[in-house]
Amino acid sequence: MKNKGLLVVVSGPSGAGKGTICKRLLEKNNDIKISVSTTTRGARVGEVEGKNYFFVSKNEFQDMLKQDALLEYAKVYDNYYGTPKKYVLENLERGNDVLLEIDIVGALQVKEKFKDGVFIFILPPSLEELKNRIVGRGTESAKDIEKRYGCALEEIEQVIKYDYAVINDDIERATIDVEGIIKAEKCKVSRIHEDIKSIFY
Ligand code: 5GP
After folding, report:
1. Is the minimum distance from the CB of 17 to ligand 1 under 6 angstroms?
2. pLDDT tens for the 201 residues of the chain, in order
3. What is the CATH number of the domain that holds 103?
4. Does any domain span residue 70?
5. Of 111, 41, 33, which is closest to residue 72 (Cα–Cα)?
6. Residue of 180, 22, 46, 41 lying closest to 100 (CA atoms)
7. CB-CB contact of 107 with 160 (8 Å)
């Protein structure tokens, strides 16, 4: 029997760099599967359906909720976001590691259901730097920038509910830190009991 895959949940305030870290992590580790979320937010320029998100209407999102098709969901900055359940469960069952890049409200729902998931929080080096990054990204309106920055302090306080925190002052180093966390978790005796058994039988 194969060990189950590892569920890795990455959160952090907007502008902390979690998206970039996850992207690098996937480029370096072909065997990690990323869960594509569903959202009622409109697509930004350059975003691709099925790659960045599954873009749906509010009604379609409600239908998914009714069908119990989402592992978790949250309303983030006026839009709904949720993790399609089937993809995550199937991959974990097959022994594949699955990465979720989701907000804190959603992450805490996942934590209730997956006690052995790994929960990683990405922090900016400072609040000033956080604001510079959100502004510098150029994807949000001035109103949205204020909203995202305004939520950041409250969000950062939630770091204590996570297993690990990585300060993103250097994207390369932060990615290596996240990789290290995943590697260490995968060596935990409690996770690799099937591999250990196979040594003897
Ligand atoms: P953005 O609009 O910048 O793509 O994402 C806004 C926030 O929604 C980010 O904090 C992102 O991590 C979060 N998010 C993306 N997908 C999901 C999801 O499936 N569930 C939850 N709870 N949050 C998500």
Report:
1. no
2. 778 899 999 999 988 999 999 999 999 999 999 999 999 999 999 999 999 999 999 999 999 999 999 999 999 988 999 999 999 999 999 999 999 999 999 999 999 999 999 999 999 999 999 889 888 877 778 888 888 888 888 999 999 999 999 999 999 999 999 999 999 999 999 888 888 889 998
3. 3.40.50.300
4. no
5. 111
6. 22
7. no
Asked whether residue 137 is domain-assigned, the answer is yes
- Ligand 1 pocket mutation, candidates 103, 123, 137, 158, criterion most atoms within 8 A of CB: 103
**The total number of structural domains that make up the chain:** 1
The token pair that represents 105 in the structure block: 């409200």
CB of 152 within 6 A of ligand 1: the answer is: no
Range of the domain at 146: 7-35+96-200
In-domain check, residue 140: yes
Determine the distance separating the centroid of ligand 1 and the alpha carbon of 16, expressed in angstroms.
Answer: 13
Ligand 1, atom nearest to 103 Cα: 23
- CB contact at 8 A, 9 and 118: yes
